[in-house]
Design goal:
heterodimer, A: 417 residues, alpha/beta, 7-stranded beta/alpha barrel, 2 domains, 4-stranded parallel beta sheet, 3-stranded parallel beta sheet, 19 helices, 7 strands, 48% helix, B: 404 residues, Rossmann fold, 8-stranded mixed beta sheet, 6-stranded parallel beta sheet
Chain lengths: 417, 404
């Protein structure tokens, strides 16, 4: 029998920094972000991807009774919806109202707090869960960490937070020939007492979970859609729902997890590549062949207590770049020092109990700021360049360091008064 | 049989004032390494008759002969004087009258002597560098019946902020169309040649300049914690190098970080007015004008500098940028330059954007991790961009011309 098909789409937009100058540091109001650019990019992506894709998804969910999808919407994306796109937010609410859409939990600010600060990690996840409950009337039970950053410790923390499942990259070197299409368990180990205390203090869900399942991204079948769909040199080009379903049916296991950026539809793969037609055809073709869909929590529920193997991850992995590690955000000296410098301010920021400072500091934690500073195989004009709003990694650092500097001096003034 | 290239240049170390001499030397050494024979003709005020200097590589496989032709031709000089005059408003017409015909005569002298001195050398190819040598190149090419390569290190447009002396510009345009192949030192220059000179793109090859790091070079990678920050400019003090912008940016940096020191190294017709402007801007105690510096003085400054600034108006390449990074000096440079095409680990700024220049400098001075990364990462390009590699490209251009 063909495994269940589990779709999860990532939706996120960062707050990009404006062209800050050293000469304007210490001015009266905090003004780090490029409102015009953020609005312009949000609207562009809304028109090309969010609105047409959501419209199509709604239609598909109504037409095909067994179709199911899930989303992870970052908190900063939802904030931008409120600022720049009530229409986009409404379209997600309409999807939620079908009862066939699951929303996952993540860090509110799409941050790397999971590897830098347990307290901040918990607070951000808690804030995100509350936001999802408020907007969509459902409580997430599966956790998706920023950029699928995953290691044993993070899985344990998510379990302590109350989640039953967690999303991760199906990395070949960790699977060692095993299938990504099965839920895995995490190795049992005790978190440090201090960490457990911190989680208990800020637990996003009511109580710690008794079990934890890792759902692994099937990167081959996911990337066929997300990256290769419009590649004319690819053997699978042009891809139709029919062929794709053949590939799905040739798979074994419990669930095929197709995880990708939502911008795949209309933004990374433009409408003229036929991506929307493909998306429209797929559920129909799946229904014809009796291929069933499920959301992450349904995948876990159907698996129940069956025996699973462990996915044992000591060094952090992610879904980024070919390295599938943290080097996209922490690969060079400026990234590391910027990340350390911003997290160092946590105590001072929280001590002020000033909501504006806290919010600003948190917006600076967003992983994209560090991604833009990446210089890995940069000369080859790779994806980092494609996704960056700035002209170079050093420009990204220049802006970020000015914001950091300004924030630091504000904290200093508060401490001295 | 090794290939024999007859080159016409206008300056060569140690007697040089600009990047062209440095580039020629690198290129000659690189070509010698690849077994090319070279006869290089240079103007010299000191030469008696047909002075010549034989240079051979140690294994004796290839050699170069440097011939000095007695000439009053002084590299850059006429152009610099012209620069000075166009900066003094209202005297443009006068400037042309002043030096046009005289310079023409001097060049004609150089051309005749150079071609005459090399009539028996039997080269396989002629290679000439910048406009003063084009006549010699064309005449030698006709005499020896071999192809001529014209190497563009700078055009009249670069030197004059796009207000060219029509006589020089016309000469460039006329000569470049006669070249069998044009070598531009950057895509920036190639674009300029196609757009402003109307040279067909397919006759132009781009070979970026290189930089050979001396074996015993000291690269400062640790940064200069705790010391007074020093911001450096090095170049001829002419319109093209935009030293004016350096002063303006220095003032903004000085306003924010009064302890910062600035050094403007190099000589040129703008020196006096720059000194006056520095006083007006209140930079008297912060800005040092060194005048002309020797190689070792320049190297020592690069090592001491916290940041090197190249604000050129229009820079075909900008060898000082490669020199700066070879010493591990963090770099802020004009986007309107060829070096910006090849150096990634630096800040690139539009030449007119004073505030951004200042801001990038301030960021480098303030952010140690940034300075450390620029020091460590930028020099890596020199593993690729050295004269051995760049000369190999030139040699392959020779071969393609000879086989077609």
């Amino acid at each position: 029998m063909t495994p269940l098909i589990c779709f999860y789409f990532q939706v996120h937009q960062p707050y990009r920094l404006r062209d800050l100058r050293a000469s304007e540091l210490g001015s009266d109001v905090i003004n780090y972000f490029d409102d015009d650019k953020n609005r312009a990019i949000f609207r562009k992506v809304a028109e090309k991807c969010y609105l047409p894709s959501n419209k199509l998804m709604l239609e598909l969910l109504k037409t095909h009774p067994d179709f199911r999808i899930s989303y992870s919407l970052s908190g900063v994306f939802l904030d931008q919806c409120e600022e720049y796109g009530e229409d986009v937010l409404q379209s997600f609410k309409d999807l939620a109202a079908t009862g066939k859409v699951e929303f996952l939990a993540e860090t509110y600010y799409h941050s790397l707090s999971s590897i830098k600060s347990t307290t901040e990690f918990c607070e951000q996840v808690k804030k995100h869960v509350k936001k999802i409950e408020k907007l969509f009337g459902q409580t997430p039970t599966v956790f998706r960490n920023t950029e699928l950053i995953f290691k044993n410790e993070i899985a344990q923390m998510a379990k302590q937070m109350g989640f039953r499942g967690i999303i991760a990259e199906g990395a070949d070197h960790l699977l060692r020939g095993r299938s990504p299409n099965l839920p895995y368990s995490v190795p049992a180990f005790q978190l440090p007492k201090e960490t457990e205390k911190q989680i208990a203090k800020n637990r996003p869900l009511k109580k710690a979970s008794n079990d934890m399942h890792v759902l692994l991204k099937n990167y081959r079948l996911s990337d066929d859609i997300a990256f290769r769909f419009s590649d004319k040199n690819w053997a699978g080009y042009p891809l139709f729902a029919n062929t794709y379903c053949d590939w799905l049916q040739s798979n074994q296991g419990h669930s095929i997890n197709l995880f990708m950026d939502y911008e795949t539809f209309g933004e990374h793969q433009w409408e003229d590549t036929g991506i929307f037609n493909f998306l429209r055809e797929l559920p129909a073709e799946m229904a014809r062949r009796d291929i069933r869909c499920a959301t992450p929590s349904q995948v876990i529920a159907e698996w129940s207590d069956r025996e699973t193997e462990t996915y044992d991850v000591h060094a952090a992995i992610s879904w980024a770049d070919t390295e599938r590690d943290l080097s996209a955000w922490l690969g060079n000296h400026i990234q590391q020092s910027a990340m350390d410098a911003i997290f160092t301010l946590e105590g001072a920021v929280k001590k002020t109990k000033n909501p504006v400072l806290l919010e600003t500091w948190r917006k600076l934690l967003t992983s994209d700021h560090f991604y833009y500073m990446c210089t890995k195989y940069w000369a080859d004009g790779d994806v980092h360049k494609y996704f960056s709003p700035y002209e170079s990694p050093y420009e990204a650092y220049r802006r970020f360091s000015h914001a950091l500097c300004d924030l630091k001096s504000r904290l200093e003034i508060i401490r001295n008064t | 049989m090794s290939l024999h290239s007859l080159m016409f240049g206008w300056e060569f170390p140690p007697l040089h004032s600009g990047g062209l001499g440095v580039a020629c030397q690198g290129m000659v050494n690189g070509l010698l390494k690849h077994g090319t024979r070279i006869t290089l003709v240079l103007p010299s005020a000191m030469a008696e008759g047909e002075a010549s200097l034989d240079v051979r590589t140690t294994n004796g496989s290839s050699s170069s002969t440097i011939k000095y032709v007695k000439s009053d031709l002084q590299p850059y000089e006429g152009v610099d004087q012209y620069d000075k005059r166009v900066n003094t408003a209202g005297k443009i017409g006068q400037a042309i009258d002043l030096y046009g015909p005289n310079l023409g005569e001097t060049i004609e002298n150089f051309t005749a002597q150079s071609v005459n001195a090399t009539r028996d050398v039997h080269p396989d190819i002629i290679h000439c560098h910048d406009w003063m040598t084009y006549d010699a190149g064309i005449r030698a090419s006709e005499h020896h019946r071999v192809p001529v390569v014209m190497h563009i290190h700078a055009t009249e447009l670069d030197r004059t902020d796009f207000r060219p002396d029509p006589w020089i510009e016309g000469k460039e345009r006329w000569a470049l169309r006669k070249a069998d192949r044009v070598i531009a030192v950057s895509n920036y220059t190639k674009n300029l040649l196609t757009q402003h000179y109307g040279i067909a793109g397919d006759t132009i090859s781009v070979v970026h300049n290189g930089h050979d790091v001396p074996k015993n070079a000291r690269v400062i990678t640790a940064g200069r914690r705790g010391k007074t920050p020093l911001v450096m400019f090095l170049g001829r003090l002419t319109t093209q190098k935009n030293p004016w912008q350096f002063l303006e940016a220095a003032r903004l940096v000085h306003d924010m970080q009064p302890a910062t020191r600035f050094v403007m190294a190099g000589e040129g017709p703008m020196l006096e007015s720059l000194m006056g402007r520095a006083c007006e801007l209140g930079l008297t105690g912060s800005m040092i004008f060194t005048g002309k510096v020797t190689r070792s003085e320049a190297d020592s400054l690069y090592r001491k500098a916290s940041c090197f600034v190249m604000p050129s108006l229009s820079e075909p390449f900008g060898l000082v940028a490669l020199e700066a990074i070879s010493h591990g000096t963090p770099l802020v440079m004009s986007k309107q330059s060829g070096a910006a095409e090849v150096i990634e680990h630096c800040f690139k700024v539009d030449f007119w954007d004073t505030e951004r220049f200042a801001d990038c400098i301030l960021t480098i001075l303030r952010e140690q991790p940034l300075a450390d990364q620029l020091r460590a990462e930028a020099p890596r390009i020199l593993q690729k961009l050295n004269w051995t590699n760049q000369s190999a490209q030139i040699l392959s251009i020779y071969h393609s011309l000879l086989s077609s």
